[in-house]
Amino acid sequence: GCPGRLRMGHLLCTLILLQAAGVLVLMFYALLWEAGNVVSLPEKRIGFYNFCLWNETAGELQCLQYRHLQVMGISLPGIVLARVCVYSCLVFGIFYPLFVAHVNSVWITPFFSAALLLVGLLLFLSQIWNWISVSDLSCAFLALVFSLILQALTAFRCCTVHDKKKKNQVQLLKVYKLVLK
After folding, report:
1. Which domain of life is it from (predicted)?
2. Spatial contact of 23 and 147, defined as CB atoms under 8 Å apart
3. Beta strand ranges found along the chain (DSSP E)
4. pTM for the whole structure
5. At what angle do helices 76-102 and 2-27 cross, to 10 degrees?
6. Which of 24, 67, 101, 180 has the maximum number of C-beta atoms within 10 A of its C-beta?
7. Residue 16 and residue 75: Cα distance in Å, rounded?
8. Domain range list for the chain
9. What is the pLDDT of residue 155?
């Protein structure tokens, strides 16, 4: 009866909050601890804020300025838009508990966050793909991908629960109307 549903609801809320915490940890690791570097190798470091390649003459990594990136065909507006999309997901993750507490549609936050992260990653990869290979991608990139998966799962789970609640409310409303007749 009711106590079982109550326990199941608490379990579901706990699971959703644990997923949100996992997303936050992964995002903090990738974007703050690893500074957003999706490639972090001795001969190249490429991230949302830097593009460094090995300079044979100097014998060290050389971080390129925008004018050099522009010559290489990398778009500054594309990089900036990718950066805004990806880092806004971190903000969504930080404020997710507030959204849960004050917004009835809990699935909206992880859905938009996952969409922004996906767009940001794809936009960024489209800009740098000519200078990397799949094996170059770092643990920070994997953390962002796992974060994306967790956000999508959270959005799906919340949306499913929301749909079930909506169906139950509609059924309750029908019963209520029958009782009033």
Report:
1. Eukaryota
2. yes
3. 37-41, 44-47, 51-55, 60-63
4. 0.78
5. 150
6. 24
7. 37
8. 2-180
9. 77
